[in-house]
Design a protein that fits this description.
444 residues, alpha/beta, four-stranded mixed β-sheet, 14 helices, 32% helix, globular
Amino acid sequence: MLECGMLEQDKRALRRRSAVLCKQLVVDELLIQCLQADEILTESMAESIMAEQTSHKRSWRLLLLLPKRGPRAFSHFCSALQETEQQHLYELLTQSPQKDGKETPAERFVDSSLRLPTQEVIAAKRARTHAESMEFSLDADSPINTPVLPCAPDFYLSHCQQSYRMNSSPRGLALVISNVTFDPCAAPDLDPRKGGEVDDEVLRKVFTELDYSVTVQRDLTAQGMRTCIENFCRRTDHRTVDSCVVCLLSHGVEGAIYGTDGQLLQLDWVFESFDNAHCPLLQNKPKMFFIQACRGEEMDCGVEQIDGPPRTCSPSCEQRDAGREGQGDANSRQRGDLGRPRIKLPQRSDMICGFASLKGQRICTAAMRNTKRGSWFIQELNSTLRLHARDTHLADIMVQVNAHIKEREGYAPGTAHHRCKEMSEFTSSLCKDLFLFPKYQPQY
């Protein structure tokens, strides 16, 4: 049984840093597991913490419990911070009290992140006007580092017949193109995407753990992106794998993203490059696209709910085919020269695309990005894939991503009280269930 009470000096350290901890501490399953393993938290305590709806509330509940968990609680909490790669908070808590009057490197890091977030203005060339891109820098939670949870054999056996084949190792090839720094001469109005480098590393890690062979390319011109995608489409190893992933991260407008030279790459051309005509090695295989870019300059500031029950799930996402399907139908058959039936595929099929922001009837919206911890969309995609890819359809994962993003709130740049929201969106032309079946290999 734990001795009651934390040492007074340790309580003071937690009190001094409580505001910073509530704002920056990432309370995820890995941190909780560390504290449970050290018998600092009981199972019921862990469940009560993780049941909180926001990271801020989870942090606050944990900080209320820790001082009551005995003299070992502080040191084990500090160890858990190191194990979950929150070194800056570990250093902040363990620095000597004599340094409190001086600003340390750790404090400089923390203090800078506590300022009101600022707008990263993308004052694009005036000719762009309504189509100029912008992403907003907002305080947000860090991506979790929990290992990808494996698929259980029973789940695979009960779902594999209705799903896309996902047996190859690697599962497929993945391409991540991340434009962070833009040419100041060719694109003087496109600011660096601070935090964008975090996103591409997060994607590299999570898709590597999902058994994809990942290629990351950074800071490409529009033509460089085009060439990179063309080369990726022509890779012969698509023949032996079961799927494909493409992630594009940049400034953007509706229907296009910017190269580092300020020129636009049309997303319709990207989807066309992977369709059944242009990339036959990926026919009948799922092709996943994730687009982290603005689709306009508007910010969703939300509205007050005045009636009805609180929402328990995200609004329905628009689900439309990821492009034109051509004149053919998947079930249509034509007789070939030898009289044998020939199956004709739609021009585009087996695609799913997740966007960081919405396209509306009147406006397109901006995407939110934290300058230290990456974008909201990529953070939530990473977290949800790690926790739920083992037993959740990818379309349902995208719905969960949207629900988690909807829970986030940030201050609109340049104001003290104006709150903004973000909603993601996905489109789909999948014709089977898409489960990634992480870390499961069928036994033959």
